[in-house]
Amino acid sequence: MSIVSIVAREILDSRGNPTVEVDLRTEKGLFRAAVPSGASTGIYEALELRDGDKSRYKGKAQFGANAILGVSLAICKAGAAEKDVPLYRHIADLAGNTELVLPVPAFNVINGGSHAGNKLAMQEFMVLPVGAESFKEALRIGSELYHTLKGVIQEKYGQDATNVGDEGGFAPNILENSEALDLLQTAIEKAGFTDKVVVGMDVAASEFYRDGKYDLDFKSPPDAERHISAEELADIYQGFVNNYPVVSIEDPFDQDDWEGWSRLTARVGIQVVGDDLTVTNPKRIEKAAEERACNCLLLKVNQIGSVTEAIQACKLAQANGWGVMVSHRSGETEDTFIADLVVGLCTGQIKTGAPCRSERLAKYNQLMRSVSCITVPAVNHKVRSRVIFSQTSVETTCGVRQGATMVTM
Questions:
Q1: Would you say 202 is a known binding-site residue?
Q2: What CATH number did the domain enclosing 209 receive?
Q3: pTM for this structure?
Q4: Which sites are catalytic (predicted)?
């Protein structure tokens, strides 16, 4: 494959901030890729450079690792075209995978933290349709549940409480994180999906870590009574697991609070996901594995800077017995690359926002297109989840264990 030309341009992401788009041409045609950016970013991520020119976009024009990634994504798309195969098949070949797996989507339906202007400290409250028979059904369940949740929130807090955050989830102005879980549980029951849907969270605790404590009201003036220790925060998580169908918690502690991470992972017996902790970086993944700090990697290609390195990070996590969840960023574009990435890497899990806002739905809709194109045994047309239970890796096409029960798909 010979590259005829590469052209980069500045476009806007879903938050109205500038980002990089790359057009790469070969004899096979034009291949375009756009790069996302995050709001709650880990300090160990690949460096995203912004030019600081206050006269343009308040100093947020950018280049650096994000420019490298744009080229990498475009080359990967061109490589698939050169082989005359779908992008997900090309990615599977690069990763050494023969089968293809459609993922369980984690719909972020309530936004807080750095993604919303409400009082919620914890950033994402997600629903996972692990009981779906297919990705098509999973998407339908997510959509129906989203609209049911809207009605539940309106009824309790009023019409203006259904404004949405950066990722399309509702952002009611509530303070207590358990209240968000109550809303989810009510909506799940009202929609009739109790046996099909479980709950995941992205706490993004580094965003409210202050001087060795965690501030659960960090958007308000400092209040020492709301500052708690890692042990107290772990007790809150245990309460969530005991009282709600929570099966996955992401970034429960600060990115350098290794002791807090390790203690929680040993304690709760659910999936504990590393994002700011691991930043898709092999060195951080290796340390997390040694410390037994988590048991699942959140895979974000722009954290490490290239498709090749992202695949390597995924394989390293899987070699350590971890799950892998492919993820978008809060500042997204209409690029659908991660929808093909999750199928090709066979991770079985993806989070890319609520079933709302076109930059989020672009990924879900691309997965729907993949369903109609994949010509493999029917079992792989089902969604597949890979969830950690009691420190035992459970990969299944038919459900996810909770306690002594199995939720059947």
A1: yes
A2: 3.20.20.120
A3: 0.88
A4: 167 (proton donor), 300 (proton acceptor)
